[in-house]
């Protein structure tokens, strides 16, 4: 199995090193990641300038690794162009969760979506981050269990996976969809100039069976997704007029 590993945190992220390490147990791995952090980049692609594909400045033991001066989606496009017959794209492990509404702007998930657009299975993997860096070594067992579950066939599919800091089980979930939880927080810099932070506000406990609910209950959340965004309910209602 040929496994392309990427992320949106950049080539230096400990999360991509942890994912590549586990992925080696399932096949031949190559890393292609952004040269700088591209968090919340969504599914942006670069079309107004050329892309550079260079050897990684850090070593991934026994893995060929490169960096790209572009977005996560760019990295998948470049990686699959230069390394033929990729079987699956793994994106992550992201430093921060990608749950509920955050899927819409996630660069981590966008990389997995780009794989599916090219006809290859895509899996996005994320974990919350607090004051300290996530304990990726502690997560390794459940990362391996999750990949074993999702890589056992060659179906074309898109999965969004989130790991709690201390997993106890794995749950199949649906996306937690609520009103957008983003907010603008104004402030001033040391010189008194106005600036603004785009951030999130805490939400109430999630509905049972959703991705947020699984993480709140220390379970790995696996949410199967699809590229078709059509609202079938509204379409069926309108088609009768």
UniProtKB/TrEMBL annotation:
Cofactor(s) essential for the protein: a divalent metal cation
Cofactor note: Binds 1 divalent metal cation per subunit.
Entry binding sites for a divalent metal cation: 8-9, 39, 94
Domain Survival protein SurE-like phosphatase/nucleotidase stretches: 3-180
The protein's enzyme class: hydrolase
Compartmental location: Cytoplasm
Coiled-coil zones: none
Keywords annotated in UniProt: Cytoplasm, Hydrolase, Metal-binding, Nucleotide-binding
Pfam families with a match to the protein in the record: SurE
SUPFAM superfamilies linked: SurE-like (SSF64167)
Reaction it catalyzes: a ribonucleoside 5'-phosphate + H2O = a ribonucleoside + phosphate
EC number(s) given by UniProt: 3.1.3.5
GO molecular function terms attached to this record: 3'-nucleotidase activity; 5'-nucleotidase activity
InterPro entries associated with the record: SurE (IPR030048), SurE-like_Pase/nucleotidase (IPR002828), SurE-like_sf (IPR036523)
General function of this protein: Nucleotidase that shows phosphatase activity on nucleoside 5'-monophosphates.
Record family assignment: Belongs to the SurE nucleotidase family.
Name used for this protein in its record: 5'-nucleotidase SurE
Source organism of the structure: Sphingobacterium chuzhouense
Biological classification of the source: Bacteria, Pseudomonadati, Bacteroidota, Sphingobacteriia, Sphingobacteriales
Gene name for this UniProt entry: surE
